[in-house]
Write a sequence for this structure.
């Protein structure tokens, strides 16, 4: 793999364009577009970040794909980053139903995918969950897709999702569903000072997020609401139903860490076994949750796997699960 051009992770690139896309209901949703310079793109790549995320955190990865000829687009989810908030305060991540996000993605895809050439989508964490759900519901039709640490189950993994959903539903009935289910960090029971341990082994890349949140204060987000929790488990349970994932025929690369402290590795492994054209690449303790923001050697392996996958013919890329491997 050739070296990437230098990337300032704390600066929007000169060729990058920040704008707003209007959802069908008139909601303004932030987007970022970064096309290669001087040559027609090899295709279009849509990156979908996770819960509480912002695309600024992934400029380095997007620069990697842009340098390889992809016209890259990233999209905020409604109600987070600089696409506003849906709760009562500027920090709580709230949504009435994950179906709203799937509908936004479907509407955006119809506009974005009209250009000629191959279309691929990459989703991280909650973005990976929503991408897979959109595929299962035939809401979008990429030529290939990558799921990075997809949110197909949550910690604690030993508690059944139906019980967690029932608890969250009770909490919604006992008070305002938009109130925060936890105060800070990435999940309940984890103090903010343990957040880096959950996300990445790279202190430098972890510090980039704090820098961007200081430079653009509206990016900051804390815990999810009780309704977010209840709807997250409802969506996870829905995807796990028999026959749902088996309808997905899109070639998929699924990458995750067995040591992930946020999303459930067993749930990811079970889902990959049910997907007809999925290749699962597993990492161990050298990788935390944010695969694209890990230390250089690990990040290089992740990007090399993605590059190799996207270099293959999209419509004939079924790799038996027996070929799953750990780099």
């Amino acid at each position: 793999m050739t070296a990437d051009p230098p990337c300032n992770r704390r600066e929007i690139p000169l060729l990058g364009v920040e704008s707003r896309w209007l959802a069908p209901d008139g909601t303004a949703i932030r987007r970022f577009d970064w096309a290669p310079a001087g040559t027609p793109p090899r295709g279009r790549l849509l990156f979908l970040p996770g819960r509480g995320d912002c695309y600024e955190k992934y400029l380095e990865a997007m620069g990697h794909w842009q340098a390889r000829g992809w016209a890259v687009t990233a999209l905020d989810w409604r109600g987070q980053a600089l696409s506003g908030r849906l709760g009562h305060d500027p920090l709580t991540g709230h949504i009435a139903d994950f179906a709203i996000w799937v509908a936004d993605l479907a509407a955006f895809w119809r506009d974005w995918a009209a250009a000629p050439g191959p279309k691929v989508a990459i989703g991280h964490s909650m973005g990976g969950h929503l991408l897979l759900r959109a595929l299962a519901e035939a809401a979008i039709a990429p030529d290939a897709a990558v799921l990075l640490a997809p949110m197909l189950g949550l910690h604690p993994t030993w508690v059944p999702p139906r019980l967690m959903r029932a608890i969250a539903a009770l909490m919604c009935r006992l008070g305002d569903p938009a109130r925060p289910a936890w105060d800070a960090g990435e999940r309940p029971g984890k103090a903010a000072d343990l957040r880096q341990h959950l996300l990445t082994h790279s202190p430098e890349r972890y510090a980039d997020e704090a820098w961007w949140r200081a430079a653009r204060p509206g990016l900051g987000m804390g815990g999810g609401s009780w309704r977010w929790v209840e709807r997250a488990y409802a969506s996870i349970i829905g995807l796990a139903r028999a026959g749902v994932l088996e309808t997905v025929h899109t070639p998929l690369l699924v990458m995750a860490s067995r040591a992930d402290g946020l999303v459930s590795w067993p749930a990811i492994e079970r889902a990959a076994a049910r997907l007809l054209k999925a290749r699962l690449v597993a990492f161990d303790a050298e990788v935390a949750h944010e695969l694209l923001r890990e230390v250089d050697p690990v990040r290089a392996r992740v990007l090399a796997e993605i590059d190799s996958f996207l270099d293959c013919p999209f419509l004939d890329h079924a790799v038996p699960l027996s070929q799953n491997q750990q780099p």
